[in-house]
Amino acid sequence: MAVKITTVDEATVDNGVKILVHGQAGVGKTVLTTTTGAPTILVSAEAGLLSIKNAPDKIKKNMRIATVRSIDDVEEVYWQVADGAWEADWLMLDSITEIAEQVLAKAGEDSPDPRQAYGVLIERMTKLLKAFRDLENMNVYMSCKQVRFTDDMGVTSYVPMMPGAKLAAQIPYLFDEVFAMRVMQDDQGEDKYILQTHRDFQYEAKDRSGMLNKYEPANLKKILDKIHGREEEKIEPPPEKKTEILPEDKKIVREIGAPKKPKEVKATTTVEEDVETAEKNIKVKK
User: Does residue 263 form part of some domain?
Assistant: First the structure.
């Protein structure tokens, strides 16, 4: 087959955004799947959907859940989606750490050699994740656990957690967007859930789109809109009223800003009465 040469625009045609989010337990990775604002398929390998049970009905109507217990179940979901059996804008895998642990457990049962089991793990998971990542015209979100790692120099970092060091090291390279989900306090001391999109000395993260700030709200719809350059319409606030103090001798304080409705002036006389009054004034002057 001949190699097809295309333009930059054709080669970068939008086939969906592929996102990996890692975070500690209870930080809101599953709740994040409810923020797409669009039809969503959630492939759940965790027995932990209680966090989205009380989501608004409008959100739940947009979601379909596929509960998987094995790698075979996950592959079946993939083929159904790839064949068009389910229509959605987003597909979620929650979480790939759980799926990988299932693969490793099954490989360990089939082979007494741990090295061979980890080889099977890397091969099957890499193939599976690439298949979901490469789904056309669909946004793909995958979550995974997060592990704290301290190196020989005593530097602590937070990175995606997967069984097997080699698989964990490969994961960030498979995605255009890698976010660390965190809880930070605002100026009032309240907890805010955010996505860190740029890497620093502690958190593994990256943003290939170049459109995101280092910290973004934990909302996938807003993230997608920003990546595509669809900024939210800014609503200008109403003009503030200002107070203007006139010179002291006038003793008047006047508010300026929004125009005031003029007072209605009511007529107290008729036209005929005004004419008659004017004629009398003329006679008096004579």
Answer: no
**Alpha-carbon span 228 to 218, nearest angstrom:** 17
Q: Give me the number of domains the chain comprises.
A: 1
Q: What is the pLDDT of residues 255-278, one digit of tens each?
A: 444 444 444 444 444 445 554 554
Residue 241 lies in a domain: no
Q: What domain range is 86 assigned to?
A: 16-227
- The CATH number given to whatever domain includes residue 100 is 3.40.50.12240
Does 8 reside within a domain?
A: no
Contact 28, 193 (CB under 8 A): yes
Q: What is the pLDDT of residues 66-109, one digit of tens each?
A: 999 888 999 999 999 999 998 899 999 999 999 999 999 999 88
Tell me how far apart the alpha carbons of residues 20 and 171 are, in angstroms, rounded to a whole number.
9
User: Left (φ > 0), alpha (ψ -120 to 50) or beta: where does 284 sit?
Assistant: alpha
CA atoms within 13 A on the CB side of 276: 5
Structure tokens at 210: 């170049």
